[in-house]
Design goal:
Elements lengths: L14 E4 L9 E6 L10 H13 L8 E5 L3 H13 L2 E7 L4 H9 L3 E5 L4 H14 L4 E2 L7 H17 L6 E5 L4 H13 L4 E7 L27 E5 L1 H15 L5 H14 L6 E6 L15
Parallel strand pairs: 2-10, 3-4, 3-6, 4-5, 7-8, 7-10, 8-9
Antiparallel strand pairs: 1-2
């Protein structure tokens, strides 16, 4: 008898309705609970997709060394997927990000290389490419790899469409690598061109884990701006307060990027009526305890 592996449980996450957050009004607000994936975030989908597809194309084989720059969730997901598939993994991340993420990556057997806070994700990406050029491994490149949005085009979006029976009117997603919003936008627009795609970015002063407004030189190659109908900017303070509010009034324990997406969805709720709005809850809040965003 053959049993499923952990990889078989990536995706098919719950879609739940929120009812108690202030400002929902006549709208239906639905959240896709991606923290239910095996490694705990939406990034499980593209991480496994990038490894599996590269393997199918003969670009990598078990035992090879993979390299990736990450702010956290992709690295954790890749570490899990690499363990499942038999790869060695070297992850590069800025030093100021939560120690929980670093510990989980190491628990899955990954090597973690830190760059300074000043170097940030841009510096991490540069170092990953330098290591690849020096023959130290293969960069999967979540920022330019079409297998990232493909995972959402083939999985996340069809799951949402089926669960809402095609009645969704708005899709709200935080933007980091932009893989989620790119893959979902493509699918939703093919089903109904009237579905509104709303991206969420930090405002000019804020740093929010998992959400980025990239300098032009580092804009993800997978990003196609025409696939996003509107961008809403959120402050770190609003993202974190909405994250905490969701825990208190909805029992939803999530991280700051999800708080930012929820804040944007609530702004949208105040502007429309009788809409069905879906947003992505990227992960769970326990990945951020050490940062102090949840007062003890």
């Amino acid at each position: 008898m053959t049993y499923p592996t952990l990889a078989d449980f990536i995706g098919n996450t719950p879609l739940a309705q929120l009812k108690r957050l202030p400002g929902i009004g006549s709208n239906t607000l639905l959240v896709k609970l991606e923290g239910n994936n095996p490694a705990g975030s939406v990034k499980d989908r593209p991480a496994y997709s990038m490894i599996r597809r590269a393997e199918e194309r003969g670009e990598i084989k078990p035992g090879d060394v993979l390299i990736e720059a990450t702010s956290g969730n992709t690295g954790i997901a890749l570490a899990m997927a690499a363990a499942v598939k038999g790869y060695k993994l070297r992850l590069i991340m800025p030093e100021h990000l939560s120690i929980e993420r670093r510990a989980v990556m190491k628990a899955f057997g990954a090597e973690v290389i830190l760059v300074s806070q000043q170097q940030g994700m841009e510096g991490a990406r540069d170092l990953a490419l330098k290591m690849q050029a020096e023959g130290e491994g293969k960069v999967l490149d979540q920022f330019g790899n079409p297998d990232n949005p493909r995972a959402h085009y083939e999985g996340t979006a069809p799951e949402i469409w089926k669960a809402t029976r095609g009645r969704m009117t708005h899709f709200v997603s935080s933007m980091g690598t932009t893989g989620t919003i790119m893959g979902c936008s493509r699918f939703f627009k093919e089903q109904n061109a009237e579905v509104q795609i709303v991206g969420v970015q930090p405002d000019g002063e804020s740093s929010i884990p998992g959400i980025r407004k990239w300098p032009d030189a580092y804009l993800p190659k997978i990003f196609e701006p025409e696939r996003v109908d509107r961008i809403i900017e959120v402050s770190a303070a609003d993202a974190e307060e909405t994250m905490r509010l969701a825990g208190r009034v909805e029992g939803l324990f999530c991280g700051p990027s999800s708080g930012g997406a929820l804040w944007a969805a609530l702004q949208l709720c105040r502007q429309v009526e009788n809409a069905t709005i879906v947003t992505i809850v990227c992960d769970r809040g326990d990945r951020y305890i050490s940062t102090g965003v949840f007062p003890a």
